[in-house]
Amino acid sequence: MPRCMLCSSVAAVKVPYLGGHLCSTHFSQYFERRFLETLERLDMVRRGERVAVAVSGGKDSLTLLYLFSRYRRALGVELVAVAVDEGIKGYREYKLEAAKEYAEKWGVELVIKSFKRAFGFTLDEAVAALMRGGLRYKPCTLCGVLRRYLLNAAALELEADKLATAHNMDDEAQAFLMNMVRANLKALSREGPVSGKVHEKLVPRIKPLYFAPEREVTAYALIQGIESPPVECPYIAYSTRHIIRRWLNRVELGDRSVKYRVLALKELLKEALGGGVEEFKTCKVCGMPSSGDVCKACSLVAYVRPLLTNLFNE
Ligand code: SF4
Ligand code: ZN
After folding, report:
1. What's the gap in Å between 245 CA and the centre of ligand 2?
2. Over the stretch 23-66, which tens digit does the pLDDT of each residue have?
3. CA-proximal residue: ligand 1, atom 4 (nearest)
């Protein structure tokens, strides 16, 4: 039976790049230290700041909320949690229930924004309309753009200094490969662990779990007793990320460090492309940050609304 390399107790987690196993206590200490060091080394939060933590109700975001709630005093930050209800029946309501329970347990106010209230339709309604229009946009495209938009709007409304998301190393490696297969050069070098204040209405984003492999986040959540309902989004079958995720995990079986190298390549490309700082304009429709004259959220909503009107009028 494997033993912890620090105290010889029964091992809980294998950490190959440290050269052995750790017991649950030492692994938790190691995981928490990396979270705190990432915050400090990259100057992610400062004392007195208000941090909005984006929670979906999945294990990663619940873990992030737990870590922040546990260390909020030591960090000197004020916390608020923000969630988005896209309106995905049989999925999101369960995840949001978990987010509510844990936020209450850890004493963090939770603010929930919904697609229905903000845009006038749920994701389920939009997807039904999109299907009839030939699915020009995939559910995840719509979901991702509108969710990011609402999270930023909520963080702005709450006067947060930072918006923290739970993206881990696997998410980042997947995102990089997705941008590669889409030949999206601009996005390839964007989205590091910290984004600066590039627009007055864009709350700077931080990713404190950026250097944590997904399996370690899962192990930590398990050790801390953090549970997320085992439901899967019904639109996952349309997700390119899901295909890349499975592929990358298969490659990792024979090459333990592949995800680190993907992220290292991202850093090299970022340097070669001149830092990856994106220029933002202001959306003519809603006044929020945008890469073009009209932001992606407004363009998508403008595309979906007439489809919905047609659907309801039939
Ligand atoms: Fe949204 Fe796609 Fe994730 Fe479902 S799988 S929650 S549609 S991004
Ligand atoms: Zn807009």
Report:
1. 31
2. 999 999 999 999 999 999 999 999 999 999 999 999 999 999 99
3. 233
C-alpha of residue 140 to centroid of ligand 1, in Å: 5
Cβ(140) to ligand 1 under 6 A? yes
Distance 299 CA to ligand 2 centre (A): 7
Report the separation in Å between the CA atom of 27 and the middle of ligand 2, taken as the mean of its atom positions. Answer: 44
What is the predicted pLDDT for the residue at 145?
A: 96
Distance of CA 110 to the CA centre of its chain: 17
Residue 283 CA to ligand 2 center (angstroms) comes to: 5
Residues 6+ apart with CB under 8 A from 136: 130, 303
What count of other Cβ atoms lies within 10 Å of the Cβ of residue 28? 17
Q: What is residue 51's three-state secondary structure?
A: strand
Q: What is the distance between the alpha carbons of residues 77 and 71, in angstroms, rounded to a whole number?
A: 9
* CB hemisphere CA count around 237 (13 angstroms): 1
Residues 222-233 pLDDT 10s: 999 999 999 999
Which helix (DSSP H) or strand (DSSP E) does residue 184 occupy? none
Take residue 174 and report the two structure tokens written for it. 């997947």
Quick check: 235 and 88 in contact, CB under 8 A? yes
Q: Which residue is listed with tokens 């909020």?
A: 72
Please work out whether the CB of residue 236 comes within 6 Å of at least one atom of ligand 1. Answer: yes
Token pair belonging to 97: 């229930």
Which atom of ligand 1 lies at the shortest distance from residue 139's CA? 7
Distance CA 86, CA 140 (A): 11
Whose atoms come closest to the Cα of 284: which ligand?
A: 2
* Nearest CA-CA partner of 175 in 296, 262, 237: 262
Please state, in angstroms and rounded to a whole number, the distance separating the CA atoms of residues 57 and 81: 11
pTM: 0.93
Q: Are 100 and 263 in contact (CB under 8 A)?
A: no
Q: Which atom of ligand 1 is nearest to the CA of 234?
A: 4
Which residue type, as a one-letter code, is found at position 41? R
